[in-house]
Amino acid sequence: MTAFKELVFSGVQPTGNLHLGNYLGAIKRFVDMQARDAQCLYCVVDMHAITLWQDPAALRGQIREVTAAFLAAGIDPKRSIVFNQSQVPQHAELAWVFNCVARLGWLNRMTQFKDKAGKDRENASIGLYDYPVLMAADILAYRATHVPVGEDQKQHLELTRDIAQKFNNDFSESIAAHGHDEGAGFFPITEPLIGGPAARVMSLRDGTKKMSKSDASDNSRINLTDDADTIAAKVRKAKTDPDALPSEVAGLAGRPEADNLVGIFAALKDVTREDVLRDHGGAQFSAFKGALVELAVETLAPLGAEMKRLVSDPSEIDAILADGAERAEAIAAPTLDAVKDIVGFVRRGPRLRAV
Ligand code: TRP
Questions:
Q1: Which of 105, 314, 325, 327 is deepest in the core (most CB within 10 A)?
Q2: Are 339 and 97 in contact (CB under 8 A)?
Q3: Each residue of 49-74: pLDDT tens digit?
Q4: Annotated catalytic residue within 28, 119, 209, 213
Q5: Is 210 designated active site?
Q6: Which residues are listed for L-tryptophan binding in this entry (predicted)?
């Protein structure tokens, strides 16, 4: 039982072209979460982006592009809070406190750091190593209870839960003394929401590799700003095997490309793989790809066009980000005040005289 009010938080890094994997695995699910009776916060995590070097002008463009994707996909900036991380100082502040809660041994186990740092670990930024702690701060600054993320973020969510738990334990007396015990500690133990038919969207050229912005072949992914003809061409060129589609999900085992295309179709259409195979089982790929082209173009082409429109005049996006930051800060600031009291800092009181 949790005493915490349901609150949804998630983030997307502004580090390059958004593709179908980002849309189906994250953004589309953020849109769907708005149907819940909960405040949703969607954050463009620019402070995470600079854990790997980013060209400054490109970064600015990508922050606006991710925001545009959120809006074009149907995130309502009045109902949800859309903002970028660096405009809300509480993320960095809470991350410092969490740096003093998290243990080296915990971070040493993070597989994403090992992947991203590669062989030259000595030369990786400290920010890259600390990335999961900042992510915990993102989530817990709002005491978020639910976080929709892709499968690859599961380990980071577990770390977030460990940090919340350790903070609650290490400071339990102080939490109670300051009247911040919600009956379940100060921080909630956040639930990851992982799943859906496209939790992992794979490359169109190799069904065993994740769709990725860094794949050398542009045909491996559908970018959210691809036009209708490009989308159609990429789907038609997608790798398949020679057999017809099975009529049951079990028949997709060992057929990664077939599984991926069926998963994409299901996610775009908001149905299950079972539903897709009920309609298309027995079809040849040429026919199925025709149906997939139609569905993908119908969904993605207007989304890409709206993104381009929004990005062409950033003033609307920038105003939405400013409004979102203000509303986000209104939630995060009281959390940080409480954290400062709990750990024993002396907070700045009211100023004695106006300056
Ligand atoms: N690490 C996440 C990713 O790469 C992005 C992210 C940062 C995030 N902070 C978050 C996701 C907080 C969910 C909640 O996808």
A1: 325
A2: yes
A3: 999 999 999 999 999 999 999 999 99
A4: 213
A5: yes
A6: 138
146 three-state secondary structure: strand
Q: What is the pTM of this model?
A: 0.95
Q: How far is CA 281 from CA 19, 261, 275, in A?
A: 27, 13, 10
∠ CA 44-33-26, rounded to 5°: 45
Q: What is the pLDDT of residue 151?
A: 86
Domains along the chain with CATH numbers: 7-199+314-343 (3.40.50.620), 218-310 (1.10.240.10)
> What residues have CB less than 8 Å from 274, skipping those under 6 apart?
248, 249
Query: Which residue owns the Cα nearest ligand 1 atom 9?
Result: 135
Q: How far apart are CA 342 and CA 339, in angstroms?
A: 5
300 DSSP assignment = H
Question: What is the per-residue pLDDT for 355?
Answer: 60
Largest Cα separation within the chain, whole Å, is 79
Q: Is 142 helix (H, G, I), strand (E, B) or coil?
A: coil
Task: List, for residues 263-319, the tens digit of each pLDDT value.
Answer: 999 999 999 999 999 999 999 999 999 999 999 999 999 999 999 999 999 999 999
Query: Which atom of ligand 1 is nearest to 85's Cα?
Result: 9
Binding-site residues from annotation for L-tryptophan: 138
Residues in the chain: 355
